[in-house]
Amino acid sequence: MEEVKDDIIAFNLKAFIQIIWKEKLLLLGIVAIFLGASAYYAFTKKDEFISEGQILPELASKGNKLRGLAGLASLAGVDIASSGDGTDAFRPDLYPDILQSTPFFLDLFKQTVTTKDNKQISFENFYHQVIEQNKEIPQKKITKFPVKENGFLVLNTLSEDRIKDLKKRIQTSIDIKSGIISISVKMPDPVVAASLARFSMIYLTNYITHYRTDKAQKNLEFLKEKVDAARGKFYSTQAKRAQYSDQFQLPTIRLQSADVQRERIESEYRTSSVFYDELVKKYEEANINFQESIPVFQVLTPPAAPTQKSEPKRAIILLIGIVVGGVIALFVIMLRKQNYKKVFEI
């Protein structure tokens, strides 16, 4: 049988050094070009500051809390042991999506922020002046479809571009194990970054609170209307019963029609009384459910205006420029005059 010999590629270090020394000007030239480009980028890029805040939401289920109050509520005739299943349809891992929604960013642009120079300005104007650097906006970017919003949003290209950029600048994450929500905002102004981080925290907590309490609030308002109506009916029949009793409290000739009228009034009074009492119990139960549905948030780390910029990291950018320039220079040198054949011997 014939022996098959594998091709062996040998690296000639001496030849490599000689070629590099011979082409040193080309190497230095390419590295200098990349170094200059990275230096231009590093020193012309605006400083960015990151402000971060942390929130700890309430994780205990509503059902557990209501069971703790069941004994107390039963003393008042209210049964809450079976109210609610303790579940929350709004999963915590969906919280970051709230601060990536279009309504959040549209509301954000309307906010007034304070700059590091202690100037009050709307965030929309700040974004245009600082981030967009007062660049002229083409008419086509601010033109929207000439339709009326009816359950949907109509945006222009400018708003879409701004929202796309802000989605990268405002980041939200949640630690599933601890439940801690972290919100970070990157802005050219450290005070504005802290201000937007604070607004984001408030927006998120208000959104979750509204979601958790909306159904209970509507149920409470509905029962309040029914209780008021039942109270009026009960008081009316109570007054009619008292008036009838006063009218026939003296010895008089008892008529069969009077007895029938008395029975009707008594029956109406008992019915309105029972109905009113039951509604009051339901209303108290709904009120407890509403109070317990309100989530509690604890601010662990309030956002602060950072004194140290987060980017650009100029030293790293320059180093990357040198490395990339050096690698590309080596490729060029090796391909030049087929120098790779002198270095790699097969």
Automatic annotation (TrEMBL):
The keyword Ribosomal protein does not apply. The keyword rRNA-binding does not apply. Its main location: membrane. It is found in: Cell membrane. It is a multi-pass membrane protein. Keywords: Cell membrane, Membrane, Transmembrane, Transmembrane helix. Residues 11-72 form the Polysaccharide chain length determinant N-terminal domain. The chain crosses the membrane at residues 25-43, 315-335. This is Wzz/FepE/Etk N-terminal domain-containing protein. It comes from Emticicia soli.
